[in-house]
Design a protein that fits this description.
Elements (H helix, E strand, L loop, with lengths): L17 E3 L5 E3 L39 H12 L1 H6 L1 H4 L3 H4 L2 E2 L4 E2 L10 E2 H10 L14 E7 L6 E6 L5 E4 L4 H14 L1 H6 L5 H9 L3
Parallel strand pairs: 4-6
Antiparallel strand pairs: 1-2, 3-5, 6-7, 7-8
Length: about 210
């Protein structure tokens, strides 16, 4: 594609009431009933909680480590990842689908979830479509979508997770981890303000809508 997807949001931000996707498509958004008085940033910064600020690589979260609600959310995303991927065009033409929240616990040593938190379905779709590294196949070239990652931005040690079309979820270590996480962060931060300003469907609502139009 001609546009460099790693470019920042255009100077001055998006047009009022819209978001501009990586490919240049403008989507009209639907303001939330109530919006925050101040937009919270999502810049990359050192973790101050002590959870991530350590030298040893932190492994990717697994469903067994999570509470029931978050586990259900992650499993819903993973089990329907290929449904979402195959319907990328439809999702990327509906701002409420595009902004549907996705929380897979992506994190980095030292900086934690900063820059990676509050991802959306559209962020994942653009990442899968435009990442500079192949995150839609396994090492044997078979279809597999990367769904989560954790690791060190310094050493490059990492633990990532991917899902196959049959729903099998497996872990792997990326040889291009720096490009993998930095491309995700760049896309995710592009929509930081929009996520807080505009209405979004839930993942389950998106799944149901897609099921009505096979």
């Amino acid at each position: 594609m001609e546009k460099d997807f790693l470019s920042s949001v255009p100077e001055g931000g998006f047009p009022e009431g819209k978001i501009v996707l990586v490919d240049g498509t403008e989507l009209t958004c639907h303001p939330k009933a109530s919006t925050p008085g101040e937009i919270e940033g999502n810049d990359l910064k050192l973790d101050t909680t002590g959870t991530y600020l350590r030298l040893k690589n932190r492994p990717a979260l697994t469903p067994k480590e999570l509470d029931a609600a978050r586990k259900a959310h992650m499993e819903l995303f993973v089990q329907n990842a290929f449904l979402f991927y195959k319907n990328a065009a439809r999702i990327m033409n509906d701002s409420r689908m595009f902004l549907a929240p996705v929380d897979m616990g992506n994190n980095l040593a030292y900086t934690g979830e900063s820059g990676l938190r509050n991802a959306t379905l559209g962020v994942y779709l653009e990442w899968w479509l435009y990442s500079p590294v192949d995150i839609t196949h396994d090492v044997e070239g078979e279809p597999a979508l990367t769904v989560s990652f954790a690791g060190s931005p310094l050493s490059g040690m990492n633990s990532c997770s991917a899902v196959r079309p049959d729903g099998e979820w497996f872990n792997f270590s990326s040889r291009s981890f720096s490009l993998l996480w930095s491309s995700f962060r760049k896309i995710n931060c592009r929509y930081t303000e929009a996520k807080q300003m505009y209405d979004a469907y839930s993942l389950e609502e998106v799944r149901q809508k897609l099921a009505c139009f096979p």
